[in-house]
Amino acid sequence: MTKFLLKNKILSFSILAYFILFFSMPDIATTAINQSSYYIKEMFMIMPIVLILSALIETWVPKETIIKTFGSKSGIKGPFFSFLLGSLSAGPIYAAFPVCTTLYKKGAKVSNIVIILSSWAVIKVPMLINEYRFLGGEFMVIRWILTVIAILILGYIMERIIIKEPLEVKAGSKEDKNTLEVDCKLCINCSLCAKQWPKYFIMESKCAKAQVTHLKPKEIKEILPAVKKCPVNAISIN
Ligand code: SF4
Fold first, then answer.
1. For burial by CB atoms within 10 Å, which of 114, 129, 152, 191 has the most?
2. Burial class (CB within 10 angstroms; exposed 0-12, middle 13-18, buried 19+) of 234
3. pTM attached to this predicted model
4. Are 214 and 128 found together in one domain?
5. What is the pLDDT of residue 118?
6. Ligand 1 pocket test target in 195, 206, 211, 235 with most atoms within 8 Å of CB
7. Burial classification of residue 142, based on how many CB atoms lie within 10 Å of its CB (0-12 exposed, 13-18 middle, 19 or more buried)
8. Residue numbers in the chain where pLDDT is lower than 70
9. Does residue 232 line the site of ligand 1, with CB under 6 A?
């Protein structure tokens, strides 16, 4: 039980906060529990559909298609389809996370993930229709243009500063073995890693292979650019 609570720190913190609230301000605690129950019910209704959709993308959509549409080879198509996907989506923003995780793992660029999430959150079509009805066309159009510009800038900045650490590198935890691995199911045999980091990778049977498995801290620093540059996120440090 202690292990579970330590592993799920946010959940543990929320439970603790509810307990404190319940004893100090029971009325507010009751309102909070009612609100939370509403959102939990909503999540139970929406999340199965979203998870099925993510699993279908994972299974049926080839990684080359994702890379061509949202990845490093997508060019101008990437932002276009990212805006389209985010704007035409339905459901709350948390439904976007599993979909974006799947796209990200299959090679979508950070900037396009930012565009999908941001447009899902603030420029969805139903939202724009309501905005038009309540605040007028001029307001809606100007807000849309400024928001799109802001999202593009945000995507560009995120692309520059994010190394795929959150999903691909878990360095820092006590259980780390700092093992360098290449997922051959994802690798597209582009040889980029082997050409730029020959100390760490060689190409074998149409897949990059790690030459050094257990990395020292200094080597992790050296190898992080390879993790970032792999166009399909096939390299990981576990
Ligand atoms: S950079 Fe990525 S896709 Fe290219 S060979 Fe290396 S592991 Fe494979």
1. 114
2. buried
3. 0.64
4. no
5. 96
6. 235
7. exposed
8. 163-177
9. yes
Q: Which helix (H) or strand (E) holds 165?
A: helix 165-168
Q: Is 117 in the pocket of ligand 1 (CB under 6 A)?
A: no
The ligand 1 atom at the shortest distance from the C-alpha of residue 190 is 4
Q: Is 188 in the pocket of ligand 1 (CB under 6 A)?
A: yes
| Domain of residue 26, residue span | 2-50
Question: Which residues lie closer than 8 Å to 78 by C-beta, 6 or more apart?
Answer: 69, 70, 71, 108, 109, 111, 112
Q: What pLDDT score was predicted for residue 202?
A: 93
Residue 136, amino acid: G
pLDDT of residue 217: 81
Centre of ligand 1 to C-alpha 184, Å, is: 9
C-alpha of residue 107 to centroid of ligand 1, in Å:
11
Number of structural domains (the chain) is 3
Number of H helices, E strands in the chain: 12, 4
**229, 162 contact by CB (below 8 A):** no
Tell me if 190 CB under 6 Å of ligand 1: yes
Residue 177 confidence (pLDDT): 64
**Cα–Cα nearest to 199, from 175, 174, 236, 226:** 226
Burial 198-227 (b: 16+ CB within 10 A, else e): eebbeeeeeebbbeeeebeeebbeebbebb
Are residues 42 and 87 located together in one domain of the fold?
Answer: no
| Residues 119 and 154 both lie in one domain | yes
Check pocket membership of 162 for ligand 1, CB cut-off 6 A: no
Same domain, 171 and 158: no
Dihedral over Cα of 151, 154, 160, 164: its sign: negative
